[in-house]
Amino acid sequence: MASTPIMRGQEDGEKYYREFRDVVKSYLLKPDESAEIDVYTFRANEIVINLPEQHYKPNILNFSVVQNIFVRNLIYDKINCRATLFPIPLVYFKLGVYYFIVGYRNYLQNLTFPKKMEATEGGRVYILKYTYELMGFLNCISNWDFYEVDKSIIPLNIEYNKTRLPF
Fold it and tell me: What is the 3-state secondary structure (H, E, C) of 2-43?
């Protein structure tokens, strides 16, 4: 988060990036206190297990490093899709075979696309499992540059930026 500059021309969003950074920073400085964030992890071996080798690039899958800030401001309330009052930031990065997504508490759980995840002991860290839709989501939050997987198996017709209202 510290090394990803705010995107040029997106000065309005800078406030929300800073607020999110401050939430994460307070947790890192005081890990015993509860943070309003969740961390989601995904291992590249899930792709290896679920896809034939011709549908992924082993070197990129195992050794690439990626960082990105993804922001959307849409919610879905079972009647319609509408904008939130402020953008919702999501930090996405990959270190070798590990993918990490950091977002506000329950953000990923409330996204409307199908997904499989399990909570680790202690709570706020979740392990994501392979799904066809998750490949599309990783493609979406990497600004359509998910080079690890062949684009022909990535779904393009799913809306990944809709969240369910928590009530």
Answer: CCCCCCCCCHHHHHHHHHHHHHHHHHHHCCCCCCCEEEEEEE
Q: Which residues contact 119 (CB under 8 A, 6 or more apart)?
A: 125, 126
- What is the chain's length? 167
Tell me the Cα Rg of the chain. 16
Please give the model's pTM, rounded to 2 decimal places: 0.76
- CA separation for the pair 128, 20 (Å, rounded): 22
What phi and psi, each to the nearest 5 degrees, are found at residue 146? -85, 80
Say which range, 17-21, 82-86, 137-141, 154-158, has the weakest mean pLDDT: 82-86
Name the H helices within 40-131. Answer: 45-50, 58-63
Query: For 148, phi and psi rounded to 5 degrees?
Result: -65, -30
